[in-house]
Amino acid sequence: MAILLVKSGGEDAMPEWRAHFSEFAPGLDVRWWDDASVPPAAVDYVLVWDPEAGRLGTMPNLRVIFGSGAGVDFIAGDPALPRHVPLMRMAPAGATQRMGEFVCWAALSLLKGARRIALNQAAAKWDYFEPEYTATETTVGIMGLGNMGGRAAEMLSGIGFPVVGWSRTRKSLPGVTCFAGDAERDAFLERTKILVCLLPATAETRGIISAPLLRKLPKGAGLVNVGRGSHQKIEDILAALNDGHLGGAVIDVFETEPLPADHPAWAHPKVIVTPHLASLPSRRERAQYVAKAIAAHERGEALANLYDHARGY
Ligand code: NDP
Ligand code: OXD
Question: For 254-270, what is the mean pLDDT?
Answer without folding.
Answer: 98
